[in-house]
Amino acid sequence: MLRFAVTGGAAIVLTAAVAFAQPAMEPSPAATASEMPVRLVNVPGTDYEIVIGGSEGAPVSQGLNAALLRAIVAWLHVDFDLPLVSDLPNIAFAAPRTMVALRYQDVPSDRLSEGPVGRDGAGAAQPEIVALYSDEARTIYLPNDWSGRSPADLSVVVHEMVHHVQNVAGLKYACPEAREAPAYAAQDKWLGLFGTDLDHAFGLDLMTVFARTTCFY
Q1: Could you tell me the pTM of the whole model?
Q2: pLDDT tier at 116 (50, 70, 90 boundaries)?
Q3: Does residue 134 form part of some domain?
């Protein structure tokens, strides 16, 4: 049984690959005191388990690894009938200003898919970009403070994995917004596995998601 731990353990260090596990680290007393009871969440359609919470004896985060990405691809196939693809994306971390540059300069907007923004970005001139996917580079870009310790952190990877599958499989959509519809649907259902949703995790209500996923022409 494969497991991915979402705990208060060590931060993930990853540059442009999809493997690399974290070495085990002893939690600090402060972190141990604030940790939640351990709960296992199975990724439907797979034998992959994600560990939520943690205590002193619980495993720490393994990092964003190939096994997790393959489990997400399998889940997307089972629950959303998306094609099974064998090619996995590259993963790269970037500073906030680099994420903005990728969004508005370096990657043409019709070749890049943007994940949801957080509550702190609502109404800002340049809202926080929490994830990006480049079709040409076949790369998911995440902020360099991404830790993978929460369902919300993992959900943005799910969102961008939908775009990776769409890209590799050559799926076509009526407009860029329609391409976002299955990504938001998968992200919301993934969050539901952990008892939350897009509204609670990112402040994205149904009307906002509708506006981002509908062709208005």
Answers
A1: 0.75
A2: low
A3: yes
